[in-house]
Amino acid sequence: MADPSVYKYPSPLQGYENLPALPNEKAEDGKSYINPTNQVPSKAYETFVEPIDNGRRGGFDVHIYFFQSNQDQMNFAISLWERIRREFPELRIYRVWDKPVGPHPVAMFEVNIFTPAQFGAFIPWLVINRGPLSALIHPNTEDEERDHTQRATWMGEKLPLDLSLFKSMKEARQKLEKVKMEQEDKNEGM
Question: What would the pLDDT profile of 150-160 be if each residue is shown by its tens digit?
């Protein structure tokens, strides 16, 4: 996992400053608290919070892993892939890779989630139906390395990812930005 001290975190109370104190009244169970009511439900029920992508790319990727040398896991993964395609046709599902690809250390397939409602339906379903397989759930923002590390959630065994790909991509983007800036400076000087 990425070192959390590398990142900055806005206050969770941003936008909720200077409100009356919360009540200390307990609910019927005697353990949980009674919360104040809101006139309008949270926008997070409808769209993913910034900076998560709410567009074509999808808000979350789910990578479902299996050991390609384990025939039972491979068979289970292929069956799970088919079931997901049949039960959740609105999700984007990619091919089953029978070898490591990108930063992923073992075989896998990927599912893209586009809405909070899809997330709320698919993730609990996957908790119950993933069998012996591990899954990485990560948001899609502009920071792919952070998405795959500090912002990631795992089901099952956590697998080590090859993060060098993200570092190389970041370096290439920085070089491209530098070239663009130099070209703009050159064009302004003409």
Answer: 999 999 999 99
d(CA 150, CA 144): 10
| CA-based R_g, the chain, Å | 21
Pairing of strands 134-139, 92-93: unpaired
Read off the pTM.
Answer: 0.83
Of 152, 142, 140, 150, which Cα lies nearest the Cα of 60?
A: 140
What's the order of all strands across the beta sheet hosting 107-113? 92-93, 107-113, 60-66, 134-139, 153-155
- Neighbouring CB atoms inside 10 A of 49's CB total 12
DSSP 49: P
Q: Which residues contact 120 (CB under 8 A, 6 or more apart)?
A: none
End-to-end CA distance of the chain, in Å? 48
Question: Dihedral, CA atoms, 146, 158, 117, 96, nearest 10 degrees?
Answer: 100
